Amino acid sequence: MGSYLNPGSKGFEESLNSAIYVDKTGLIEKINALVNTRQKYICISRPRRFGKSMAADMLTAYYDRSVDTADLFDTLKIASTKDYKKHLNQYDVLKINMQSFLSATHSMDEMLEVFQKRMIADLKRGYPELVMDGESSLVFAMNDIYANTRRPFIILIDEWDCLFREYKQDKEAQKKYLDFLRAWLKDQEYIALAYMTGILPIKKYGSHSALNMFSEYSMINPREMAEFFGFTEDEVKTLCVEYKRNFEEAQAWYDGYELMTMDGENPKIYAMYSPKSVVDAMLSGLFDNYWNQTETYEALKVYIQMNFDGLKDAIVRMLAGDRVQINTGTFSNDMTTFQNRDDVLTLLVHLGYLSYRWQDKTVSIPNKEVSQEYVNAISTMDWHEVIASVQDSKNLLEAMWTKDADAVAAGIDKAHKEISSLQYNNENSLACTINLAFYFAREYYTIIREFPSGKGFADLCFIPRKMHTDKPAAVIELKWDKSAEGAISQIKDRQYVEGLKEYQGNLLLVGINYDKDTKKHTCRIEEFEVS
Question: Is the distance from CB of 524 to CB of 488 less than 8 angstroms?
Answer without folding.
Answer: yes
